[in-house]
From TrEMBL, chains A, B:
Region (Disordered): 1-22
Database matches in Gene3D superfamilies: 3.30.470.10, D-amino Acid Aminotransferase, subunit A, domain 2 (3.20.10.10)
Pathway this chain belongs to: Amino-acid biosynthesis; L-isoleucine biosynthesis; L-isoleucine from 2-oxobutanoate: step 4/4; Amino-acid biosynthesis; L-valine biosynthesis; L-valine from pyruvate: step 4/4; Amino-acid biosynthesis; L-leucine biosynthesis; L-leucine from 3-methyl-2-oxobutanoate: step 4/4
Name of the protein this chain belongs to: Branched-chain-amino-acid aminotransferase
Membrane-spanning ranges: none
NCBIfam families according to UniProt: ilvE_II, PRK13357.1
GO molecular function: branched-chain-amino-acid transaminase activity
Catalytic reaction(s) noted: L-valine + 2-oxoglutarate = 3-methyl-2-oxobutanoate + L-glutamate; L-leucine + 2-oxoglutarate = 4-methyl-2-oxopentanoate + L-glutamate; L-isoleucine + 2-oxoglutarate = (S)-3-methyl-2-oxopentanoate + L-glutamate
Keyword tRNA-binding: no
Entry similarity comment: Belongs to the class-IV pyridoxal-phosphate-dependent aminotransferase family.
Amino acid sequence: MSEKTIQVNLSPERKPKPESNQLGFGKIFTDHMFVMDYTEGKGWHDPRVVPYQPLTLDPASMIFHYGQTVFEGLKAYLTNDNRILLFRPERNMQRLNRSNDRLCIPNIDEELALEALKKLILVDKEWIPTAEGTSLYIRPFIIATEPFLGVHASNSYQFIIILSPVGSYYKEGIQPVKILVESDYVRAVAGGTGEAKTAGNYASSLKAQEVASQKEYSQVLWLDGLEKKYIEEVGSMNVFFKIDGEVVTPALNGSILEGVTRNSVIHLLKHWGVPVSERKISMQEVYDAYKAGKLEEAFGTGTAAVISPVGEFFWKDEKLVINEGKTGEISKRLYQTITGIQNGTEQDPFDWVVEVHQEAVAK
Amino acid sequence: MSEKTIQVNLSPERKPKPESNQLGFGKIFTDHMFVMDYTEGKGWHDPRVVPYQPLTLDPASMIFHYGQTVFEGLKAYLTNDNRILLFRPERNMQRLNRSNDRLCIPNIDEELALEALKKLILVDKEWIPTAEGTSLYIRPFIIATEPFLGVHASNSYQFIIILSPVGSYYKEGIQPVKILVESDYVRAVAGGTGEAKTAGNYASSLKAQEVASQKEYSQVLWLDGLEKKYIEEVGSMNVFFKIDGEVVTPALNGSILEGVTRNSVIHLLKHWGVPVSERKISMQEVYDAYKAGKLEEAFGTGTAAVISPVGEFFWKDEKLVINEGKTGEISKRLYQTITGIQNGTEQDPFDWVVEVHQEAVAK
């Protein structure tokens, strides 16, 4: 048997499955998980699907001290005709390896990881929720496990995939959010880890998020770390503005995460003939467009919400109410098209979805 | 019995203790650890000394995904007359709480933490090595344990202290290191987490460290993230330069860690009447001083090495060899004085050391 054969060890017990209105996001986990080990000299080995279980790690494991870790997030959807679909999963695996490079973590075999993900989903396929807007959230992540208190790259790792059935992000239809433009805290800077999907980026964002919540804003809009002028991301999403008929999003610059939804939105807009550009854009430019009545829409893009329209920005003591606080036309069309492609109810002109074929799960 | 009483559960087994020449740094751990839990509503509770054991954590625990964690590092020393000394431990606990604030982690009771640390050391006092230059390294850390895949502050945490007997940092006496001035990667920026002792700062430093190692430099010197002109830190140490008789160190600016050794060095230099200033200092200024023959010494300060003299900087394709690559007078004097105060062989004019009194360890 090859080192690369994924072993499957089924759980003797099955947890009760929640009702679709009990799902929430990222709180409930399925019966199984995927695990693969890395040790120096031996490489990645022993890929296996095992019962969902706690990780048992030495308290000196480097993940607890030096944050050497990366993760991904994607979703599986069940179609009306009972097919399981993934949305551009190969891009998540490619990005996982780009994050690995930045964090000095050994690359994974992207094909094997994708196979592992499919096998795990098939084992837990009864956990994929079926109500509208629900899906199975997939969280691949890698952690440094060497028990050593010194700052260097770990000599051992675990690659793990866990699954969480998640509810509709919008309980009552797509809803615009209110965003605080952040002027004190910084998420990332060129030369840092902003374009990698790694824990530290999220840890550093908590404080700003807390301050925004106290002011009753649901997320923050991050400006660049150097001049605090140029727009980077919103919360943990990429951000788009429709100004005078053109859709603009910040160009990738080394500190912005390259979102899969971001890329899909750009593709779709081009396909539709909507002008779209990736470029540097300042908050002042957005403000000026607003004042001139030309800021038509703003929205965030990410795996969790897909499209998150922005109804209001708060910047320098001023409220910028966009499109009367309502969801714009482009936001709506993008949301319907992308979620439709994801759940199999819309045409998939770019071959984005990947079907998880339900033949023989290995014993 | 109070919620704050530290319970002690002794290990039935004791591991063999290593020879002093086998110690290394951060690889060997003692027989016990301290653990305390936090749950929302209940606060910090159940402080306990338990046998050293693996942590058992749900794979969805937030520490593995969003890096909400802080740590500290300090040492205990055994004196020739068998007393156990700590060096300014209250500053580590104060800094731990400052880091907690930045990372949205609930503050700990600093007195209780210090008591816990002392109790743990007394339980494992036979692990304090006695050979010259050796000590017991102490690693307090806090991790977010809520099993939840969403970016918010965790509702549960563990505060843990582990101990590691460590060897002399310098096997053959204090030795100057060679440092690469980093021009591509950035450690931290104002508004980020640079002044907090949190995992993500160390994760982001690994790549630059890897590049430096390939060029046979042992550490990197970090410049500011904005202009890449001003000096911040060296490796995971603070840095000092002696220029034309004056000792200069970068002023605390929000992205530099406030080192306990840094603070102690400044105190000692002032006490000795050596001119010392905390201010913004550019790499160009260091270079110009070098060219003018006025760069007399450079050294890093940190808990692990105490004082780490710099024998060479590499910047813009040029080697700056300092003091003929030898340890300077101030570096030597600081090293001898601070390590002497720490191990009880030198006068302690500032009441820096705290003795761990060996009366009654609770059952």
